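Sample entry follows:

:::
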Amino acid sequence: MTNWLVAMPRRRRLRLAIGCGIAIVAWFAAGLGAAHMATRARPGAVAPLTTWHGHSVEPVQVVAADGVVGHGWMMVPAGAQECVVLAAGIGGHRGAMLERATFWLARGTATLLVDLRGTGESTAPRLSMGFHEALDLAAWHAWARTRGFPRVGVHGVSLGASAAAYTAVRCDVAPAWSFAVLEACYVDIRSALYARLPWLPAVALWPMVAASEWLLGVDADELSPERAIARLSAPTLLVCGDEDRKVGPDAAARLRAASGASLVRQHVVRGAAHVDLWPRDAAGISAAIEELLRAR
């Protein structure tokens, strides 16, 4: 024991010990509270839709491997031979993907807009940064194949993008996506947290990471699209804003370097943060998708 602590009056040492104990408890409590808020479900009613740009809208549902029920909309242009699954980010639902659906429908692609677990009208357990949501996308892939589509691609935004990457590692048999478009995907959970809270030292975030692991039943080391994408072999387009501080400005480049796909492209939206990128650069993203599909 250091000399200054020995010399300190006993009552003052006791107050110091109590103060340190309270600080540690508060530190852990803050981490638990932050993890609870970050992983809470965001369900919400979805306004009914019967047609979209001349295409009839079919309400559909699927059950994932772990029993979670997912809801979606299906739109099929005449003669469609390929289907794309569209998945929104945290706080979004299938309705948030309608403008992207317009693009896919115009090129003759059947379009399946889905609510991931905990969003929209799907069953609402905790959100898991895409890890468990991957089971939803795998179920939708299998469902689309039963509808007669030999090729099924995926187009995800933020949560939907990370879920698409995790399908490569979360399933006994990974879905054979015909392509993957990943917008604003994070690299790993620690990098994402540090990007959001750069003024805090890494050790200060440990209780939040540990609490998230406990709430989700997932080791933080597994929450890494960077690791998962190494096993995603589908032709892949990575889209990110160059001012996206929530996933980190180097996220797309790191994911591209880690990708296991033989064909992987990157599109940067200039001046964009972690926002809906489609309204900012629909023409640029559409052109990048077309280029990817022509090159595969």
Notes: The mean pLDDT is 88. The chain has one domain: 50-188+224-295. The two ends are 67 Å apart (CA to CA). The domain at 50-188+224-295 is CATH 3.40.50.1820 (Rossmann fold).
